[in-house]
Amino acid sequence: MEVVIVPSADDSGRVVAGLLTVTGSGTSTGSVVGLDVGGTGIKGARLGLAGGVQERVAIATPVAGGPTAVVRAVVQAARSLTRPDTIGVGVCSAGLIDTGAGVVRRAGNLGLRDVPLARVVREAVGLPVTLEHDARAACLAEHRLGAGRGSEDLLLVVLGTGLSAGVLTGGRLVPGSLGFGGEIGHAPVHPDGESCPCGQRGCLEVYASAGGMVRRYRSAGGDPAHSAADIARAVDRDPLAGRIWAEGMEALGLGLRSAILLLDPGLVVLAGGLTGAGERLVAPVRTAVAGGLAWREPPPISISTLGAEAGVHGAALVLLDSTGRR
Ligand SMILES: [Zn+2]
Asked: pTM score, two decimals?
């Protein structure tokens, strides 16, 4: 049996589901569950191996209830989606993820530390369960189904509450020795710069993530109700918004230049909430990257096509890969 992944698009052309088409003599039934655990919400879907999204769940992450409540919510989401024909559950999560051990080492936004999430979910649903970092899962999904199709060397940078990256080289995800690969958000862009929640100073995430820009804008006296999207929209009429945004783009350009020189990706895909700013984001980032590279052409920089779906599909793909159903 061969499983072929076919991207599926809605009326606007946006890819909404990675359809898994089974060819050959095998059965066409079966499903896989993908779960994306973030600081705000837990999103999940059951995807048919024969194609299509069969069911979705979306629940608020009960961070205020502590780690037990968060883990219980993940288990509840997994249970609600599995059916007798489900072959496994792929989970991806924010935070520092030990993929091999299936453990969330540290996830500040989720309040989790050293939680064996894969084992807990496996025992609850009685099925194979994989755990992957959310940005790496999204990177795999964009590679197979989205903006990164055709690129075997892909850098996906998620600009959300925090900032992290998924790295794919030679068609394979790069978790690193500890599973901390891709944490470019904590690469220094300003030595002795502003402090980062991680304990370091001058991290890229402080300046270029959606969360970081909102914090910097507020602390400089900007409207406390402004979101990162509001800041992006106000750059031409609000000098403070203009400065915070420009400094963010400059920092992102610097961070991307280092990553490009290290990895030589064929394509850089930007993902996460900040990409709602569209060309206000991509144009200055392209300029900042190109302006700092003297002897080589920058790789193309584009925006994710899977959007908020990438994590769920990537998590499901990781589970499928683990079962050999490539
Ligand atoms: Zn940091």
From this structure: 0.88
Mind giving me the DSSP string for 233-281? HTTTT-HHHHHHHHHHHHHHHHHHHHHHHHH--SEEEEESGGGGGTHHH
Neighbours of ion ligand 1 (CB under 5 A): 186, 196, 198, 200, 203
What is the distance between the alpha carbons of residues 245 and 227, in angstroms, rounded to a whole number? 12
Q: What is the pLDDT of residues 295-322, one digit of tens each?
A: 999 999 999 999 999 999 999 999 999 9
Ligand 1 mean position, distance from CA 306 (Å)? 27
Identify the residue whose tokens are 């409207």. 223
Of 220, 201, 282, nearest to 249 (Cα)? Answer: 282
Check whether 159 has a pLDDT greater than 80. yes
Do the strands 103-107 and 112-115 form a parallel or antiparallel pair, or are they unpaired?
A: antiparallel
Ligand 1 centroid to residue 186 C-alpha, Å: 4
Strand 86-93, strand 129-133: pairing: parallel
The strand pairing partners of 104, in sequence order, are 97, 115
What is the per-residue pLDDT for 306? 95
Cα–Cα distance measured from residue 24 to residue 1, given in angstroms and rounded to the nearest whole number: 5
C-alpha of residue 206 to centroid of ligand 1, in Å = 7
In Å, what is the CA distance from 35 to each residue of 54, 99, 112, 118, 298?
14, 15, 17, 11, 34
Span from the CA of 3 to the centroid of ligand 1 (angstroms): 40
User: What's the 10 CA to ligand 1 centre distance in angstroms?
Assistant: 38
Geometric angle at alpha carbon 145, from 134 and 133, rounded to 5°: 10
184 Cα: distance to centroid of ligand 1 (angstroms): 9
Ligand 1 geometric centre to CA of 25 (Å): 51
Query: What three-state secondary structure class fits 36?
Result: strand
Closest CA to 230 of 218, 174, 219, 220: 218
Q: Which helix (H) or strand (E) holds 141?
A: helix 134-145
